[in-house]
Design brief:
3 strands; citrate synthase (unknown stereospecificity); transferase; 243 residues; flat; mainly alpha; single chain; Citrate_synth-like_sm_a-sub
């Protein structure tokens, strides 16, 4: 057997026998293992079960796109409108991902993991609100009564037997928030992502990694559509009201 070496230990090994991701041969990954399961393996270093892979796949699909008005999409299309390359356009959009856009699942997972160590969830939420911190995973600019994506994901997690303590805490936060903020805040997709991935054993930063992978597909689609269906700078003109 040849010795496998990697510039980044434990992630990819390349040798005479082929390529391994986290010790698993590419022959086993292509086909039966699938993309969602391979992604979980690469990011976490652990082999997801087939059931977990179904959940990861659903999370990827749900986060792939949310329209032209999402910050990363708007920036990607603007770059494409100026006829930057596909890679540059998508990279420009991904630069918008952070605490405000794309980071709420990470923040929600961290909050729920912290809540799991405390005795009083109401007190934790009260402290966050008093320090003017948002409660990640709640509220949405479009969905006022229910985020259908969050509902479907949490239902699937329950059906697959993957909903654990963090999903339970998320629902408890949903119950407590109207009392603490004086209004109902819809449980959104970021809350579902954060809770489910935390229950899968993913670290909070890994939640943002999944969002980046998923949203890259949507950004590619937006850039390619602009290249094929709009004149150069047409989208920019539309943003400026036709000026």
């Amino acid at each position: 057997m040849s010795e496998y070496k990697s510039d980044i230990p434990d992630i990819t090994q390349i040798g005479d026998e082929g390529i391994r991701y986290r010790g698993t041969m590419m022959d086993d990954l292509i086909g039966p293992f699938g993309f969602a399961r391979s992604l979980g393996l690469l990011i976490t270093g652990k082999r997801p079960s087939e059931t977990q892979a179904r959940m990861i796949d659903a999370l990827l699909v749900s986060a792939a796109d949310h329209g032209e008005k999402a910050p990363s999409a708007c920036i990607t299309i603007s770059a494409a409108s100026a006829r930057a390359s596909l890679g540059a356009s998508v990279a420009a959009g991904l630069l918008a991902v952070g605490d405000v856009h794309g980071g709420a699942a990470r923040q929600c997972a961290a909050m729920l993991l912290e809540a799991g160590k405390e005795k009083d969830l109401r007190e934790l939420l009260r402290r966050r609100l008093e320090s003017e911190k948002r409660i990640p995973g709640f509220g949405h600019r479009i969905y006022r009564e229910k985020d259908p994506r969050a509902t479907l994901l949490l239902q699937l997690a329950a059906e697959l037997g993957l909903a654990g303590r963090c999903c339970g805490l998320l629902q408890e936060v949903e119950r407590l928030l109207p009392e603490l903020v004086g209004k109902t805040l819809v449980l959104n997709i970021d809350g579902a992502h954060g809770a489910i991935l935390a229950d899968l054993g993913w670290e909070p930063s890994m939640c943002e990694a999944l969002f980046i992978v998923a949203r890259s597909a949507g950004l590619c689609a937006h850039a390619l559509e602009d290249f094929s269906s709009r004149r150069p700078l047409q989208f920019i003109s539309e943003l400026q009201g036709g000026r």
